Amino acid sequence: MNPFTYTRPADAAAAIHEAAHAGARYLGGGTNLVDLMREGVERPAALVDVTGLDRTITELPDGGLRIGAAISNTALAADRRVRTRYPMLTRAIVAGASAQIRNMATLGGNLLQRTRCLYFYDDAARCNKRQPGSGCDALEGFNRMHAILGASDACVATHPSDLCVALAALDATVHLEGADGKRALPFEALHRLPGDTPERETELRPGELITAIELPALPMARRSTYRKVRDRASYAFALVSVAAALEIEDGTIKDVRVALGGVAHKPWRARTVEALLRGQQPSEEVFRRASAGELSSARPLRDNGFKVELARRTIVAVLSQLAGGRP
Ligand SMILES: Cc1cc2nc3c(=O)[nH]c(=O)nc-3n(C[C@H](O)[C@H](O)[C@H](O)COP(=O)(O)OP(=O)(O)OC[C@H]3O[C@@H](n4cnc5c(N)ncnc54)[C@H](O)[C@@H]3O)c2cc1C
Ligand code: SF4
What we know:
The chain is α+β, with helices and mostly antiparallel strands. The chain has helices spanning about 10-20, 35-40, 75-80, 80-85, 85-95, 100-105, 105-110, 120, 165-170, 270-275, 285-295, 305-325, and strands at about 5, 25, 45-50, 55-60, 65-70, 175-180, 180-185, 210-215, 225-230, 240-250, 250-260, 270. Among the domains are: about 5-50, 2-Layer Sandwich (Uridine Diphospho-n-acetylenolpyruvylglucosamine Reductase, domain 2); about 225-325, CO dehydrogenase flavoprotein, C-terminal domain (Enolase-like, domain 1). The strands form three sheets. A five-stranded antiparallel beta sheet has the order 4-5-8-6-7. Flavin-adenine dinucleotide binds next to strand 2, helix 6, helix 7 and strand 8. Iron/sulfur cluster binds next to helix 8. It comes from Reyranella soli.
């Protein structure tokens, strides 16, 4: 049993003050952090419960939305503005976990949930993320769920979130507050690739609190979707997922957004697909070439070679669906 203190501050300033204590961690719905505490992977000395902070959704002057980080996944997915303006986000959220977990889980916690690599949870295994410098048992072990893009010899884990894949495609902004004041980060810059320091998963500074996410006004996102391919129809993490939006004008692709989940240490913005598609006439062949371009840098492991073809095909299927006017 590891003793820890528990506080539930009423505002962000008080939460940041509490989190300045050594070993403190913010607590959202606890659906990931408490599991990790039970497994002994996380041993916080203090839990600072942030579920009482901002959970509102407010309109921005330019037509975007600002979403308080304490909102539950369920409330965010159900919001009518989110459902109509950013359908890929609602679809991504409801593709994740179970209704009970989504009721508890917060937006801030979803962003910072840890990998589902089995060796990370097993303290008998070598894991550079859990214990830097110890090695990585996934490299030669069971690595069917692991990364095919952007991995390193130090870590081949994937980021497990569905919601984050949609935020990457939508060019969201993350609002942060800490001892040094407030700042904003493009969502794509929040999570890191593993490199030599897989224990550093984000660009957050110590004690920094995620206060809100902003979604830009993005009319093309009304024609967007999210598809998750997994081993079971529910309650399973993505083998591969695709969030995409497509804007076609006069028979030509004017703009496109694509992000992938289940393939890398962070939500993977498919910039190559996007660059290869802009200005093209939509067709399955064009989508196939673009997806092959993105996956040309894939480095599969012993058990996950199937993900390369699966990712290619899922990109083509989702873009074809959107081009056909089927959300
Ligand atoms: C059985 C099961 C199945 C699941 N399936 C899926 C799935 O298919 N897809 C999917 O996307 N997710 C899935 N999840 C994960 C789930 O979505 C996450 O556990 C959840 O989103 C985390 O949110 P939380 O509020 O409970 O975070 P917590 O567990 O409370 O916290 C997670 C991390 O975020 C930090 N944190 C929380 N809030 C803030 C903040 N505002 N600022 C800074 N740091 C913060 C905490 O310190 C902690 O490190 C599953 C979980 C379970 C248990
Ligand atoms: S893949 Fe990453 S999280 Fe998994 S065992 Fe290796 S270092 Fe740890």
